[in-house]
Design a protein that fits this description.
This protein is mostly helical. 64% of the residues lie in helices and 0% in strands.
């Protein structure tokens, strides 16, 4: 499989789309998590079609979450679990990437 650098795993336009949606999640905007799932699945399909590995794709989204400027001021911790919101967002993106990777029809 072709190795693609994580640094260019996402185009500038794709990175902006993901970043905007992550900002909406951090703000708690209604439907933001659903929107992030849709975007991540769509971009993951494109990344896999370009020959990217599942781990490289997942790491690219994780980097977007963990390096997001809104994380510093809005990365709340769950009272129930003690988990940072960013950890939950990373988990969401990893689940989406894994779902696409497991889909035998992902290229169609």
């Amino acid at each position: 499989m072709l190795h693609i650098s994580r640094a260019r795993a996402l185009s500038d336009a794709a990175e902006r789309r993901v970043s905007n949606q992550i900002a909406r999640v951090y703000r708690g905007t209604y439907g933001a998590r659903t929107g992030l799932r849709i975007i991540v699945r769509s971009l993951a399909r494109q990344m896999f079609a370009a020959g990217m590995s599942q781990e490289t794709a997942a790491q690219a989204f994780e980097d977007c979450v963990l390096n997001h400027p809104d994380r510093a001021g809005r990365d709340r911790h769950s009272i129930a679990t003690g988990e940072a919101e960013s950890a939950g967002i990373v988990q969401l993106t990893r689940e989406c990437v894994a779902e696409v990777a497991a889909d035998p029809h992902r290229g169609t």
